[in-house]
Amino acid sequence: MELSDPEHFLWRRNRRNVRRRTDMNKLHIEVSRDNCDRISVDNMSTCSSNDSFCVESEGDNLKNTVVTGKNDFNKPKTVPPVALDCEMVGVGDEKTSALARCSIVNYDGEVVYDVYVKPDKPITDYRTQWSGIRPKHMNNAITFRSARKKVKRLIKKRILVGHALQFDLNVLNLRHPSDLIRDTSKHIPLRALAGFPRNSTPSLKRLTRQLLKWDIQVNEHSSVEDARAAMYLYKKCEAQWEKDIRGKGGQSYLEDAYWPNWTETVN
């Protein structure tokens, strides 16, 4: 049998008694009754990928049973990146930008979160040509507070991908650690890959067309489409980007391409 989860393993048959054993590598294994027997592994344990552990019991059918351990008990779980994009409308007499739609996609471009948000102030400009927002979208819209709370939880401690993320984070009134931001509008090597000048700031539409051969924002903008495009652009040069962030590539770790000057580190 193979221990697929270092936290627990569900045994195949029910048992009433509890037996513990600590092997030579200090791997703690426990067999207990909770609808079905459970083997729990101490999180502090270490072992090699080829180690096997013998679970012994006074009862029948358990003695000399072999459980094979994986060498990932102490490895931190990698949290995959997410991409964020927002659509804004104008509110009040000055038509100030306010959040009207917020979308988050996962590493594969699948929608994780997509909601319409009703601003606190009356909408005076739907900016439909650029936002895709119409009055009907406000019928089932949620509050800004609810959307912000959900987004904050979804992006916490994750690499956050997006294009010109300062606008999205500002409209959400959120901050994100600088070292976890991957902004496709700021990444100089991405511009070079697309053949654009280093000192230019290409739009998401231009980058996507050039590097992904995909036309976005053809009629109206969609925050899902834009978030997905940003994630695909990030994946286009992800390996080198992450090497450079860790200081293992050819770029400077503190270059503006990786630490945009509008971000703030959050403790």
Can you put this structure into words, describing what you see?
With 267 residues, the protein is an alpha+beta fold. The chain has two domains: 8-68, no CATH class; 82-245, Ribonuclease H-like superfamily/Ribonuclease H (Nucleotidyltransferase, domain 5, 2-Layer Sandwich). It contains seven helices and 13 strands. Strands 7, 8, 9, 10, 11, 12 and 13 form a seven-stranded mixed beta sheet that branches. The longest helix is centred in the C-terminal third of the chain and has 14 residues, at 223-236.
Present the secondary structure layout:
Layout: E1 8-10, E2 19-22, E3 28-34, E4 36-41, E5 52-55, E6 65-68, E7 82-91, E8 96-105, E9 111-118, E10 123-125, H1 128-131, E11 142-143, H2 144-155, E12 160-162, H3 165-172, E13 181-183, H4 188-194, H5 204-212, H6 223-236, H7 238-245
Parallel strand pairs: 7-12, 9-11, 12-13
Antiparallel strand pairs: 1-4, 2-3, 3-4, 5-6, 7-8, 7-10, 8-9
How would you describe the shape? globular
Number of strands: 13
CATH superfamily (homologous) name of the largest domain: Ribonuclease H-like superfamily/Ribonuclease H
- The first-level CATH class of the largest domain is given as Alpha Beta
Class computed from helices, strands and strand pairing = alpha+beta
CATH architecture label name of the largest domain? 2-Layer Sandwich
- Mean of residue pLDDT? 75
Q: What's the helix-strand series?
A: EEEEEEEEEEHEHEHEHHHH
- Oligomeric state of the chains in view: single chain
Number of individual domains: 2
How would you sum up the major sheet?
7 strands, mixed
CATH topology of the largest domain: Nucleotidyltransferase, domain 5
Which band does the percent of strand residues land in? 25-35%
The helix tally amounts to 7
Uncertain runs are: 1-73, 257-267
